[in-house]
Design brief:
Distance between the termini: 16 Å
Radius of gyration: 17 Å
Helix content: 10-25%
Strand content: over 45%
Shape: elongated
Amino acid sequence: MTRLYDVNVRAVVNATRIDPEATGAIEGWEVYDFEGTERNEHGEAVEAVYRCDQFVSNIEAGNAEDAAEIAMMDASPIVVSGWVIDSVNLWVDFDNEDVVLVQHPLVRR
């Protein structure tokens, strides 16, 4: 039985700045924490860790675990203009109600 879910996808992004003028914004993702792990002589971050979220809605899946997997695949790409992405770790926090059942069962119109 297919159900409809809304899922909050979380990401930890490690990146290295290549453009000294880059703002470091991640389009389509809400950055809730930024940590400069290495800084230049001016105190500007040259390596950083971003923690961010993206809300993906209307995921059709048989259960919450499948919805989480689909949402992680459907989330928009993480692009940090002026930075090289070294690694990305995506996950869904089931203990924090990141997966919400919207409609049970899915009713097609």
